[in-house]
Hints:
Layout: H1 16-30, H2 46-56, E1 68-73, H3 76-97, H4 100-106, H5 117-120, E2 123-130, E3 132-135, E4 138-141, H6 145-162, E5 166-167, H7 176-181, E6 188-197, H8 213-216
Antiparallel strand pairs: 1-2, 2-6, 3-4, 5-6
Amino acid sequence: MKPSAFIPYDYDPLTPEESLKKAQIFFEETNKRRSVRHYSNTPVDEEVIKNIIKTASSAPSGAHKQPWTFCAISNPALKKEIRIAAEKEEYTNYHGRMGDEWLKDLEKFETDWKKPFLEEAPWLIIVFKKVHDIENGEKKKNYYVNESVGIASGFLISAIHQAGLVTLTHTPSPMNFLEKILERPKNERAFLLLPVGYPEADVKVPKLKRKSLEEMAVFYK
Length: 221
């Protein structure tokens, strides 16, 4: 008989009251999360970054293939090189690639092609998706790659917030310069770039309103 590949689930049951309380607390804490574009030079311990990445890697993935690589960068020279390459693409975006509607939608954020946070933040975490794996020189299929890496990125952002740090989802397009600078293998594609650190003193963020529950959820009873 084939031995079982299953193990008991480590589950600590909660009462309905405890579930409600924990769900409310988690929402209230997570709802404080904001995208931040200005970072202090306060260092962040590497062990914190490691635990954040391990949290992201606990995300579910298609057939448990875990089709991701997280590159954590604190080297100033590399961060500068990334900033230069990113700003080159962003300049082109802001001066031709983006349509008028897109540019208008960005006005409330007061952003432009300059991205100093790529050097200011003590860490950059770049999420790469593996379009396929390579084992012994052969391609191995991965499943639901974008969905899996997207979920892991959500875990990553949540873990950054829970650690008392801030971040920003940055997606300069195209992002293949990251694969070249970091010398990633051919089966990896840059998916998301996150500066990570502490906010600059007295930092301000745009005044935004999130959709209400009634605007973004439908309950079928």
